[in-house]
Amino acid sequence: MSKEVFFGNDIAALEQQQLRRRMRDVEGPQGRAIVLNGREVLNFCSNNYLGLADDPRLIRAAAECMEKEGFGSGASRLVCGNMASHRRLEEKIAAFKGAPAALVFSSGYMANVGIISSLMGRDDVVFSDRLNHASIIDGILLSQAKLKRYPHSDMDALEGMLREPSSAKRKLIVTDSVFSMDGDIAPLDRIAALAERYGCMMMVDEAHAFGVLGKNGKGAVEHFGLEGRVDIQMGTFSKAAGSFGAYGCGSETLIEYLVNHARSFIYTTGMPPAVAAASQAAIEIMEHEPDRRETLWDNARYLGGRLKELGFDIGRTRTPIIPIIVRDSGLAVEFSRRLLEAGIFVSAIRPPTVPANTARLRVTVMATHTREDLDRLTEQLKNTGRALCLI
Ligand SMILES: *Cc1c(COP(=O)(O)O)cnc(C)c1O
What we know:
This protein is α/β, with parallel strands linked by helices. The protein has helices at 3-16, 56-69, 84-97, 108-119, 134-143, 155-163, 188-197, 220-223, 252-261, 263-266, 273-288, 290-309, 329-341, 371-387, and strands spanning 26-27, 33-36, 39-43, 101-105, 125-129, 146-150, 171-176, 201-205, 232-236, 246-250, 321-327, 344-345, 348-349, 359-364. Pyridoxal-5'-phosphate (PLP) binds at residues 107-109, 112, 133, 135, 176, 180, 205, 207-208, 236, 238, 246.
C-alpha cells in the first residue's frame, strides 16, 4: 500500500465514524467574540477564562520586553538562552504560588512530559486518574514506569491499588485538579491523605485551575488548603493567564533536579522572553483584579443553573467548564454545526479526547461574557436541543 493510500484510508475511516477533525481559521484576537471563517461569532470554547489573551497590558509587557531583550532566545536555557525575563517569571510564579522554587517550560504539554519522565523510571509506579490529560499519560509512558490507572476520582479504588503489594522503588500519584472535559474537581484533600499514608509523591496539574480556583486564584491546592503537602504543582500560562508556557513548582532540590534531568527543558530552546514577560503581567493582573475571577464564577453559576433547568445533562461540573453530554459523536457535531449557523461557537468533543459514547459540547465561560451573551447562548441551546430531541 502506498503511503498516500494509507493516509487517505485512515482519514476516510475517521470521516465515516464522524471523528475527522478540521481546523477553523480565526482572524483577529481571541475574545468573547471572534471572527471565524470570516464571520463574527460568540466564543464559548476558549480556555481564556479571564479574558486576558488580548489584554493591552500583556501586549505592552511583551512589546517592552522585545525592545530590551529582542525576540528569540537563541539556545537552550542551559546554554546561553536563560534570559532575564525567564528568571523574573520564575521568581514571580514561585512567590505567587507560595512555593520555594519554580521552573518555566515552553508549554504545559512539555512540562508534564518532562517532569514525569524525569522523576519516574522503570522501577517505579505511577497512579493516574483515568481522565487525566494526554500530556500526563505521555509523560508516564515515556518514563517507562508501571502505569496504574484508577477509575475517575474513585478514592476507594485508588486506595485498593495502593494497598497491593508492590516491588516499586518509588510511587507517584498524579491528577488533573480540574478535569478539562468535565469541569469537575479532583478530591485533592483525600489524595494528599492517601499519598502521605502510602508514602507516595503527589503531583497536580492545575492547567484549568490556575487563575480560576482558590481565594487568590492560585489553583485547587489553595482551594483545598493543601499548601506544603503537594510535592509538584504544575500549571500553565496558556489558559486563564491568556499567555503561553507553563510552570512546575516545588522544593529547591526538586527544581534543581528538573533542570538537570527534564529533557523537554534541556533539549529545547528557551521560550521567547516576551512570552515570559506577558505571563508575568498576567499574574500581576490576577493579583490586582480579583473581580475578574468573581465575574467568571458568577457567569459559570448563572449558565450552569440555566442549562440544568432546561434539562441538559451537564455531568458533574463545578467550574466554568460546562459539558453538555449528548453521547453520539454525529449528534454532537450536528449540534455544534447548528449553533455555529446561529452565530455561536461551541466545539464538539469526541473520542478519543473523551471516552467512547460520551461525545459532548464543551461550553467554557469567560469573565468577559455579558449576561446578554449567556442568554443568547441559552436560547439557542434550548431551540437546537429541542430540535435534536435532547431535551
Ligand atoms: C491544556 C492542558 C495541558 C497542556 O497545556 P499547554 O500549555 O496547552 O501545552 C496540560 N494539562 C491539562 C490538564 C490541560 O488542560
